[in-house]
Protein backbone atom coordinates (compact mmCIF):
# COMPACT_ATOMS: atom_id res chain seq x y z
CA UNK A 1 0.00 0.00 0.00
CA UNK A 2 1.28 3.45 -0.90
CA UNK A 3 0.71 6.12 1.77
CA UNK A 4 0.52 9.82 0.94
CA UNK A 5 1.06 12.41 3.67
CA UNK A 6 -0.87 15.40 2.34
CA UNK A 7 -1.28 19.01 3.45
CA UNK A 8 -4.35 21.11 2.64
CA UNK A 9 -4.11 24.93 2.54
CA UNK A 10 -7.40 26.53 3.60
CA UNK A 11 -6.63 29.88 1.98
CA UNK A 12 -6.00 28.52 -1.49
CA UNK A 13 -7.63 25.09 -1.40
CA UNK A 14 -4.36 23.63 -2.70
CA UNK A 15 -3.38 20.12 -1.62
CA UNK A 16 0.27 19.09 -1.70
CA UNK A 17 1.93 15.77 -0.93
CA UNK A 18 4.71 16.16 1.62
CA UNK A 19 5.75 12.50 1.65
CA UNK A 20 4.97 9.39 -0.39
CA UNK A 21 6.05 6.01 0.95
CA UNK A 22 5.38 2.32 0.34
CA UNK A 23 5.10 1.87 4.13
CA UNK A 24 1.71 2.10 5.80
CA UNK A 25 1.73 5.22 7.97
CA UNK A 26 -1.14 6.94 9.76
CA UNK A 27 -2.49 9.84 11.78
CA UNK A 28 -0.33 12.98 11.38
CA UNK A 29 0.06 15.47 14.25
CA UNK A 30 1.53 18.91 13.58
CA UNK A 31 4.16 20.13 16.06
CA UNK A 32 3.37 23.39 17.93
CA UNK A 33 6.46 25.06 16.46
CA UNK A 34 5.37 24.06 12.95
CA UNK A 35 8.61 22.26 12.13
CA UNK A 36 7.56 18.61 11.86
CA UNK A 37 4.72 16.11 11.64
CA UNK A 38 4.38 13.02 13.81
CA UNK A 39 3.01 9.77 12.33
CA UNK A 40 2.85 6.11 13.28
CA UNK A 41 3.34 2.89 11.34
CA UNK A 42 4.15 -0.75 11.98
CA UNK A 43 3.73 -0.22 15.74
CA UNK A 44 6.35 2.55 15.75
CA UNK A 45 6.46 6.35 15.82
CA UNK A 46 8.11 8.62 13.24
CA UNK A 47 8.94 12.31 12.93
CA UNK A 48 8.67 13.91 9.46
CA UNK A 49 10.53 17.25 9.25
CA UNK A 50 8.79 19.68 6.91
CA UNK A 51 12.06 21.00 5.51
CA UNK A 52 13.43 17.51 4.72
CA UNK A 53 10.50 15.07 4.56
CA UNK A 54 11.48 11.55 5.53
CA UNK A 55 10.50 9.04 8.21
CA UNK A 56 12.75 9.47 11.22
CA UNK A 57 12.37 6.99 14.09
CA UNK A 58 11.29 8.26 17.49
CA UNK A 59 12.66 6.22 20.39
CA UNK A 60 9.71 4.85 22.39
CA UNK A 61 11.76 2.65 24.69
CA UNK A 62 10.38 -0.84 25.19
CA UNK A 63 7.04 -0.01 23.57
CA UNK A 64 6.59 -1.31 20.03
CA UNK A 65 2.85 -1.85 19.58
CA UNK A 66 1.65 1.73 19.09
CA UNK A 67 -1.65 2.46 17.41
CA UNK A 68 -2.67 5.70 15.68
CA UNK A 69 -3.74 7.59 18.82
CA UNK A 70 -0.76 9.83 19.61
CA UNK A 71 -0.01 13.53 19.96
CA UNK A 72 2.22 16.39 21.09
CA UNK A 73 1.85 18.59 24.17
CA UNK A 74 0.93 22.29 23.69
CA UNK A 75 4.48 23.32 24.66
CA UNK A 76 6.00 20.76 22.27
CA UNK A 77 8.08 19.11 24.99
CA UNK A 78 6.17 15.86 25.50
CA UNK A 79 4.63 13.15 23.32
CA UNK A 80 1.68 10.99 24.22
CA UNK A 81 1.13 7.52 22.75
CA UNK A 82 -1.32 4.66 23.01
CA UNK A 83 0.30 1.23 23.10
CA UNK A 84 -0.42 -2.35 24.18
CA UNK A 85 3.08 -3.86 24.41
CA UNK A 86 2.79 -4.27 28.20
CA UNK A 87 -0.99 -4.57 28.55
CA UNK A 88 -3.69 -6.68 26.86
CA UNK A 89 -5.39 -3.52 25.58
CA UNK A 90 -4.36 0.01 24.67
CA UNK A 91 -2.78 2.06 27.46
CA UNK A 92 -1.63 5.71 27.45
CA UNK A 93 2.00 6.74 28.01
CA UNK A 94 3.98 9.98 27.79
CA UNK A 95 7.63 10.42 26.81
CA UNK A 96 10.01 13.27 25.99
CA UNK A 97 9.50 14.85 22.56
CA UNK A 98 13.05 13.84 21.59
CA UNK A 99 12.21 10.23 22.49
CA UNK A 100 13.08 8.17 25.53
CA UNK A 101 11.62 6.12 28.33
CA UNK A 102 7.79 6.17 28.43
CA UNK A 103 5.78 6.87 31.60
CA UNK A 104 2.46 5.08 32.02
CA UNK A 105 -0.46 7.46 32.62
CA UNK A 106 -3.67 5.42 32.59
CA UNK A 107 -3.95 2.66 35.19
CA UNK A 108 -7.02 1.24 33.42
CA UNK A 109 -7.36 -0.23 29.94
CA UNK A 110 -8.46 0.02 27.23
CA UNK A 111 -7.62 3.73 26.91
CA UNK A 112 -7.03 5.49 23.59
CA UNK A 113 -5.64 9.05 23.71
CA UNK A 114 -7.16 11.79 21.52
CA UNK A 115 -6.88 15.27 23.07
CA UNK A 116 -4.61 17.47 25.19
CA UNK A 117 -6.08 20.36 27.20
CA UNK A 118 -4.83 23.81 26.07
CA UNK A 119 -3.16 24.41 29.43
CA UNK A 120 -1.24 21.16 29.08
CA UNK A 121 -2.62 19.73 32.32
CA UNK A 122 -5.08 17.02 31.23
CA UNK A 123 -5.51 14.32 28.59
CA UNK A 124 -8.84 13.37 27.01
CA UNK A 125 -9.32 9.85 25.75
CA UNK A 126 -11.73 7.10 24.75
CA UNK A 127 -12.34 4.30 27.24
CA UNK A 128 -14.25 1.09 27.73
CA UNK A 129 -15.31 0.77 31.36
CA UNK A 130 -17.71 -1.89 32.62
CA UNK A 131 -18.24 -2.99 29.00
CA UNK A 132 -19.37 0.48 27.90
CA UNK A 133 -17.59 3.07 25.76
CA UNK A 134 -17.09 6.55 27.14
CA UNK A 135 -14.96 9.70 27.22
CA UNK A 136 -12.59 10.34 30.13
CA UNK A 137 -9.90 12.78 31.22
CA UNK A 138 -6.90 12.39 33.50
CA UNK A 139 -4.09 14.64 34.77
CA UNK A 140 -0.96 14.42 32.61
CA UNK A 141 0.95 13.77 35.84
CA UNK A 142 -1.23 10.72 36.42
CA UNK A 143 -3.89 10.04 39.02
CA UNK A 144 -7.61 9.35 39.03
CA UNK A 145 -9.45 9.44 35.74
CA UNK A 146 -12.77 11.24 35.40
CA UNK A 147 -15.31 9.60 33.10
CA UNK A 148 -17.30 12.45 31.56
CA UNK A 149 -19.87 10.38 29.69
CA UNK A 150 -20.51 6.65 29.25
CA UNK A 151 -23.39 4.50 27.96
CA UNK A 152 -24.10 1.48 25.73
CA UNK A 153 -23.42 3.73 22.70
CA UNK A 154 -20.05 4.33 21.01
CA UNK A 155 -17.84 7.31 21.91
CA UNK A 156 -14.57 8.32 20.26
CA UNK A 157 -12.19 11.09 19.21
CA UNK A 158 -12.36 13.62 22.09
CA UNK A 159 -10.50 16.86 21.28
CA UNK A 160 -10.47 20.14 23.24
CA UNK A 161 -11.40 23.54 21.85
CA UNK A 162 -8.50 26.04 22.14
CA UNK A 163 -10.27 27.96 24.93
CA UNK A 164 -10.68 24.73 26.92
CA UNK A 165 -14.43 25.24 27.30
CA UNK A 166 -15.56 22.23 25.24
CA UNK A 167 -14.46 18.76 24.27
CA UNK A 168 -15.69 17.64 20.85
CA UNK A 169 -16.19 13.93 20.14
CA UNK A 170 -18.19 11.57 17.92
CA UNK A 171 -20.93 9.26 19.10
CA UNK A 172 -23.99 7.35 17.93
CA UNK A 173 -25.88 8.19 21.14
CA UNK A 174 -28.38 10.17 19.02
CA UNK A 175 -29.12 7.18 16.77
CA UNK A 176 -26.40 7.74 14.15
CA UNK A 177 -22.68 8.55 14.26
CA UNK A 178 -22.49 12.33 14.57
CA UNK A 179 -20.32 14.98 16.17
CA UNK A 180 -21.02 16.11 19.73
CA UNK A 181 -19.44 18.38 22.31
CA UNK A 182 -19.44 18.35 26.10
CA UNK A 183 -18.10 20.55 28.89
CA UNK A 184 -14.87 19.33 30.54
CA UNK A 185 -16.90 18.69 33.72
CA UNK A 186 -19.20 16.29 31.84
CA UNK A 187 -22.21 18.61 31.52
CA UNK A 188 -24.13 20.07 28.57
CA UNK A 189 -23.64 17.27 26.01
CA UNK A 190 -24.80 18.74 22.70
CA UNK A 191 -25.18 17.16 19.24
CA UNK A 192 -23.43 19.25 16.57
CA UNK A 193 -24.13 17.42 13.28
CA UNK A 194 -27.26 15.70 11.99
CA UNK A 195 -26.98 14.41 8.45
CA UNK A 196 -26.80 11.17 6.48
CA UNK A 197 -22.99 10.87 6.63
CA UNK A 198 -21.17 8.83 9.26
CA UNK A 199 -19.08 11.50 11.03
CA UNK A 200 -15.87 10.84 12.98
CA UNK A 201 -12.88 12.51 14.65
CA UNK A 202 -13.66 16.22 15.07
CA UNK A 203 -10.64 18.53 15.43
CA UNK A 204 -11.16 22.18 16.47
CA UNK A 205 -8.67 24.55 14.86
CA UNK A 206 -6.14 26.38 17.09
CA UNK A 207 -7.79 29.74 16.33
CA UNK A 208 -11.21 28.45 17.38
CA UNK A 209 -12.86 29.21 14.03
CA UNK A 210 -13.32 25.74 12.57
CA UNK A 211 -13.86 22.07 13.27
CA UNK A 212 -12.38 19.59 10.79
CA UNK A 213 -13.71 16.04 10.61
CA UNK A 214 -13.87 12.82 8.60
CA UNK A 215 -17.12 11.72 6.95
CA UNK A 216 -17.87 8.20 5.75
CA UNK A 217 -20.72 7.32 3.38
CA UNK A 218 -24.13 6.62 4.88
CA UNK A 219 -24.39 3.13 6.36
CA UNK A 220 -20.68 2.66 7.16
CA UNK A 221 -20.08 0.62 10.31
CA UNK A 222 -17.23 1.74 12.57
CA UNK A 223 -14.25 3.61 11.11
CA UNK A 224 -12.74 1.14 8.63
CA UNK A 225 -9.82 1.70 6.23
CA UNK A 226 -10.02 1.54 2.44
CA UNK A 227 -13.12 3.62 1.85
CA UNK A 228 -14.08 6.65 -0.19
CA UNK A 229 -14.25 9.36 2.48
CA UNK A 230 -14.51 13.14 2.64
CA UNK A 231 -12.84 15.75 4.80
CA UNK A 232 -15.31 18.38 5.96
CA UNK A 233 -15.03 21.70 7.74
CA UNK A 234 -17.54 23.44 10.02
CA UNK A 235 -17.24 27.24 10.26
CA UNK A 236 -18.35 27.79 13.85
CA UNK A 237 -19.44 31.41 13.43
CA UNK A 238 -22.06 30.46 10.85
CA UNK A 239 -22.55 26.73 11.31
CA UNK A 240 -21.85 26.20 7.59
CA UNK A 241 -20.21 22.94 6.54
CA UNK A 242 -18.19 22.42 3.38
CA UNK A 243 -16.28 19.54 1.81
CA UNK A 244 -12.54 20.13 1.40
CA UNK A 245 -11.39 16.85 -0.15
CA UNK A 246 -12.52 13.42 -1.28
CA UNK A 247 -10.03 10.60 -0.98
CA UNK A 248 -9.34 6.90 -0.41
CA UNK A 249 -8.74 6.41 3.30
CA UNK A 250 -10.64 6.23 6.57
CA UNK A 251 -8.88 4.61 9.50
CA UNK A 252 -5.55 6.42 9.86
CA UNK A 253 -6.55 9.45 7.80
CA UNK A 254 -7.58 11.94 10.49
CA UNK A 255 -7.61 10.15 13.85
CA UNK A 256 -5.73 12.77 15.89
CA UNK A 257 -5.23 16.58 16.06
CA UNK A 258 -3.59 17.61 12.78
CA UNK A 259 -3.83 21.42 12.42
CA UNK A 260 -0.86 23.67 11.76
CA UNK A 261 -0.26 26.14 14.63
CA UNK A 262 -1.58 29.07 12.55
CA UNK A 263 -4.80 27.21 11.58
CA UNK A 264 -4.12 27.84 7.88
CA UNK A 265 -3.27 24.23 7.01
CA UNK A 266 -3.86 20.70 8.20
CA UNK A 267 -2.23 17.35 7.49
CA UNK A 268 -3.90 14.03 6.72
CA UNK A 269 -3.24 10.62 5.19
CA UNK A 270 -4.64 9.18 1.99
CA UNK A 271 -3.80 5.86 0.40
CA UNK A 272 -3.46 4.38 -3.06
CA UNK A 273 -6.58 2.60 -4.23
CA UNK A 274 -6.14 -1.18 -4.42
TrEMBL record:
InterPro entries per the UniProt record, alphabetical: 6-blade_b-propeller_TolB-like, WD40
Gene3D superfamilies given in the database record: TolB, C-terminal domain
Family assignment from sequence similarity: Belongs to the TolB family.
Record PANTHER family: PROTEIN TOLB, PROTEIN TOLB HOMOLOG
Protein's name according to its UniProt entry: WD40 repeat protein
Organism: Primorskyibacter sedentarius
Amino acid sequence: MTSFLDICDLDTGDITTLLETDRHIEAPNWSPDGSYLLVNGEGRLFRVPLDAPQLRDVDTGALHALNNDHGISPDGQTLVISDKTQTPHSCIFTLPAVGGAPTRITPKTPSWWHGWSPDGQRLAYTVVREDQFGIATIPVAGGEETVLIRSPHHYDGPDYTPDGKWIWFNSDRGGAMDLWRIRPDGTDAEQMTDDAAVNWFPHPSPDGRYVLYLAYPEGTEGHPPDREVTLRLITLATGDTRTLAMLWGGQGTLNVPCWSPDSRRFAYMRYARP
